Amino acid sequence: MDSRRQLKIGSLIKEIFSQVLLREGKNLYGKALVTVTNVKVTSDLTLARFYLSIYNTDTPDSVIDVFNEKKFEIKRMLAEKLRHDLRRIPEIEFFRDDTLDYVYHMEDVFKKIKEEDERIAQGEPVAKAIKTKKAPAKRAAKKTK
Questions:
Q1: Which of 34, 35, 90, 135 could form a disulfide with 48 if both were Cys (CB 3.0 to 4.6 A apart)?
Q2: What is the domain extent for residue 111?
Q3: How far is CA 50 from CA 45, 120, 132, in A?
Q4: pLDDT per residue over 8-35, tens digit each?
């Protein structure tokens, strides 16, 4: 549970970092669409973890790598804006926030389940793969030895 101070500082850092991304973003990471979803600050206020959603690119992890390579430049940009609000600028870490991808995946799973239920309700035969559970390939290979 984060304290009120951690939440306030995290919110302030998120706002300033969003402004930095608007001004300098294309120079840092190219054409990808990067959104700051959350900033978590440790209880001693020495580390800030940035969670970024990355779209419009084939390799989102490479964008995170670019942010990690330019971490000191980004920290300097944040320090220019935060120098009157904080005594020490926290160290920064970047992580990919894939919660939206997980939400889309879960929606697809629920749609498939709903379609299966509708087929069963209409009296269509259920696929054989669903009726009989097959052992994973590794287990089947071990049993044959």
A1: 90
A2: 99-127
A3: 14, 46, 45
A4: 999 999 999 999 888 888 777 778 888 8
